[in-house]
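Narrative of accomplishments. A recurring question from our advisory board has been how the design workflow behaves on a single, concrete structure rather than in aggregate. To address it, we present the structure tokens for one chain from the evaluation set, followed by the sequence designed for it. No filtering or post-editing was applied between the two.
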């Protein structure tokens, strides 16, 4: 089995306020130091970030210098469309055409910057598009606006011959009570409607879990459609998107994900979207690398022991469960 390519979202390597402590428990860490922490952590190959909050044309050269120092790849650059007052009620699907245009421009800026770094992925997250109150939002209009904005983005991408893959990252709730395209199936419906080889999906495992989704089902659905271009790994107890290191709460579910990705020959990045509000971000990265590799060795053993053949006998649930536990014991021994 090949080495997993792992990247870290540098937004998690910082002081992280919550709504009950808006000052956070730590000190702010400058962006370049965050990239250095990724580079100094064994097993980390790349990083992910937002424009303009974590990179601008003014800081571009400094970022390039630090990433080259550590031989890191810039894996994902996302245009921030949910941190400014103008995006309070929406962005790519806002009712106001000027706000939608501002959001589209922000994504275009991220694509321009990303192309200079050969960034393979740019994520779209409809954080503020959606609703809080019943009947508040005209979803017929919201879906029309969102599709139109994505079409504009994809036209721009092709007009510039960019090779970046643009990915919708679904999340059911937070910050809005209901975020537009909140589930994996909804995101896939958009990808099918856009029908562009450069437009697909980033499955964030924690988001799919708080949506109550079955991970191996949803990964398979998107992989089968050829639309899985990126992944975000993290973990939670399915009540809130708390972004713990992958495998710390649901290790067997992590094995399910890695198994399906391996079966499909996924060769993309394994992104980490972690929020260590109280803990050391380096510990979070190290634990993530360890657990991803452990899940991978369990999958290797499952492959050797004939899991694929057992899955073809649809009644082998108890035997597969025993095999899985035996492989976990062996991999951890
Ligand atoms: Mn994510």
């Amino acid at each position: 089995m090949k080495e997993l390519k792992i990247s870290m979202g540098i937004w998690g390597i910082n002081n992280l306020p919550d709504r009950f402590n808006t000052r956070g428990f730590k000190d702010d860490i400058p962006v370049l130091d965050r990239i250095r922490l990724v580079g100094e952590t064994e097993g980390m190959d790349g990083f992910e970030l937002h424009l303009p909050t974590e990179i601008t044309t003014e800081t571009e050269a400094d970022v390039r210098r630090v990433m080259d120092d550590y031989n890191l790849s810039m894996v994902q650059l996302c245009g921030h469309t949910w941190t400014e007052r103008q995006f309070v009620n929406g962005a790519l699907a806002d009712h106001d055409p000027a706000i939608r245009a501002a959001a589209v421009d922000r994504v275009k800026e991220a694509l321009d910057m990303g192309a200079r770094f050969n960034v393979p992925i740019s994520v779209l997250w409809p954080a503020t598009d959606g609703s809080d109150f019943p009947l508040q939002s005209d979803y017929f209009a919201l879906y029309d606006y969102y599709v139109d904005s994505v079409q504009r983005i994809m036209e721009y991408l092709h007009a510039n011959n960019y090779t970046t893959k643009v990915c919708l990252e679904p999340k059911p709730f937070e910050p809005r009570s209901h975020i537009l395209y909140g589930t994996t199936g909804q995101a896939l419906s958009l990808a099918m409607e856009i029908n562009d080889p450069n437009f697909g999906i980033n499955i964030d495992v924690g988001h799919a879990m708080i949506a109550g989704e079955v991970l191996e089902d949803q990964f398979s659905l998107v992989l089968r459609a050829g639309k899985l271009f990126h992944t975000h790994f993290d973990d939670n107890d399915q009540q809130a998107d708390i972004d713990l290191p992958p495998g710390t709460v649901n290790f067997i579910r992590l094995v399910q994900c890695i198994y399906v990705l391996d079966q499909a020959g996924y060769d993309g990045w394994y992104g980490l979207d972690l929020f260590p509000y109280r803990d050391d971000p380096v510990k979070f990265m190290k634990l993530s690398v360890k657990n991803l590799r452990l899940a991978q060795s369990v999958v290797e053993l499952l492959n050797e022991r004939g899991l694929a053949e057992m899955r073809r006998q649809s009644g082998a649930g108890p035997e597969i469960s025993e095999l899985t536990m035996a492989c976990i014991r062996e991999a951890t021994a």
